[in-house]
UniProtKB/TrEMBL annotation:
Pfam families: AAA_22, Cdc6_lid, WHD_Cdc6
Coiled-coil positions: none
All residue ranges annotated as the Cdc6 C-terminal domain in the record: 312-396
Key words, A-Z: ATP-binding, DNA replication, Nucleotide-binding
Protein name: ORC1-type DNA replication protein
Sequence ranges assigned to domain AAA+ ATPase in this UniProt record: 55-218
Organism listed in the record: Promethearchaeum syntrophicum
Length: 429
């Protein structure tokens, strides 16, 4: 039996890993941000005119995830606010929202209104858009004395989702001409480097007055970032430089993501702590990497639309009951049609759309769809899940709509229209 008392007692006695683990969490804002001098300087130069009560240019920040965009903005914000306080100037108002969560133009406007004046909320739907706009103008002039910075994180999602968002963004960027006292500055943030190409030129010219790119960090830069945080996060002797280099190298291999590097280091520390190890060894880093991958896949699967989940489940069922044999797009579609009929309210997709979704799933890394030539039978896409079946089961099981289908044995497995018998290809009739 697990001796819980002994475990806790030992944990207190032997815990020599963390000094302050929160320093490794994403919400922690470090006092210095190595390798982001150029970006900090550019943004500081643009927003400095706030101190003379003038409106700065709107800014676009581009860079892949974990390249320090939010950290740099928060860093500049804290310093600008401090300077305003010291110089007796109205502190700017900052409204920050993530367009993944606040994902329509209407909601963006309503959210800004409600941040400015929570006591008189605008409903999250239902008003005509021009009424919400008028309300926003009224709130800005009432509650903002000076500049209001509006940060739209993941702005690309807003634009991609709704063509109408272009108009709302355009009007938001031009709102200053209708304001009496307040001035609005927009900071758009995007992880998609070529997002500008998708923007209406009118919106681009008013929102993208200044553009700043955040390049990915390389392994040496990540090492320095980790080192700076690790010094105060860990106890003496808990880790060596070798561990920091390993975390930096693994994160740099992906796309130079500082968040990933920090997560890896923190998770490796937590695993070492749970095992009551005196220090972090490379094995803990590799275990942490597996854990992070698993969490990422879980989050991805849970956020998929029902159609995509059903297609994944089709691949799961085929792989489960056709052990060892290859699966091709046609198999998946046949199985998908069987499952789709059993999910109330789910409409039937065409084979072409299912193929597109398989391609999207392939890009996410959850499966591998490889095109192979079959001589005179043409080219076929072979599909393999990249994660163990039992993992996919736990990622999808929370969706009640699919609950009864995990043990479903597809009828097409037995049918003679099955595309493969063993590894031998039989052409579909
Ligand atoms: N130069 C740096 N020095 C220290 N820490 C950094 C640096 N750059 C990023 N970080 C840390 O990495 C984590 C991720 O950074 P941040 O949230 O700013 O990335 P981001 O580019 O905004 O990512 P996303 O687009 O996913 O929101 C945070 O914990 C942040 O403090």
């Amino acid at each position: 039996m697990f001796d819980i008392e002994n475990y806790f007692e030992n944990f207190v006695k032997t815990n020599k890993i963390f000094e302050e683990r929160n320093i490794l969490r994403p919400e922690f804002v470090p006092k210095i941000l190595p390798h982001r001098d150029i970006q900090i300087r550019k943004i500081a130069e643009i927003v400095a005119c706030t101190l003379k009560n003038s409106k700065p240019s709107n800014i676009f920040l581009f860079g892949k995830t974990g390249t320090g965009k939010t950290a740099v903005i928060n860093y500049v914000k804290d310093h600008l606010n401090n300077q305003c306080r010291n110089s007796d100037i109205h502190e700017p108002k900052w409204v920050s929202l993530n367009c993944q969560q606040v994902n329509t133009g209407y909601r963006v406007l309503a959210r800004i209104c409600n941040d400015l004046d929570p006591d008189d909320p605008v409903p999250i739907a239902g008003w005509p858009i021009d009424v919400v706009f008028d309300k926003l103008i009224e709130k800005l002039d009432t509650f903002v004395h000076g500049i209001c910075f509006i940060i739209l994180d993941e702005i690309d999602i807003l634009v991609k989702k709704m063509a109408k968002s272009h108009d709302i963004l355009y009007n938001l960027a031009r709102i200053n001409s209708r304001l009496k006292h307040a001035k609005v500055n927009i900071i758009g943030i995007s992880n998609v480097l070529n997002f500008k190409n998708a923007l209406d030129p009118r919106v681009l010219s008013s929102l993208g007055e200044e553009e700043i790119v955040f390049p990915a960090y390389n392994a040496n830069e990540l090492k320095e970032i980790l080192n700076q945080r690790a010094n105060s996060a860990f106890q003496n002797g808990a880790l060596t430089l070798e561990i920091i280099s390993l975390c930096a190298a693994l994160a740099a291999k992906e796309h130079g993501d500082a968040r990933k590097a920090l997560d890896l280091l923190r998770k490796a520390g937590e695993l070492a702590e749970r095992r009551q190890s005196p220090n972090i060894t490379p094995d803990f880093v590799y275990f942490a990497q597996d854990d992070i991958e698993k969490d990422k896949m879980k989050e991805y699967c849970e956020s998929l639309p029902l159609q995509n989940k059903t297609i994944l489940l089709s691949i799961y069922s085929m792989q489960k009951y056709r052990s060892g044999n290859a699966i091709i797009t046609g198999d998946v579609y046949t199985c998908y049609l069987e499952l789709q009929k059993q999910i109330p309210g789910l409409n039937k997709l065409s084979q072409r759309r299912v193929s597109e979704i398989i391609r999207e799933l392939d890009l996410s890394g959850i499966l591998n769809a490889q095109i192979k030539s079959n001589g005179r039978y043409g080219r076929t896409k072979f599909i393999n899940l990249n994660i163990p079946l039992e993992n996919l089961n736990t990622f999808l099981i929370n969706d009640n709509r699919l609950n009864d289908l995990f043990d479903y044995r597809p009828r097409c497995i037995e049918s003679n229209t099955t595309c493969f018998k063993g590894q031998k290809y039989i052409k579909l009739g």
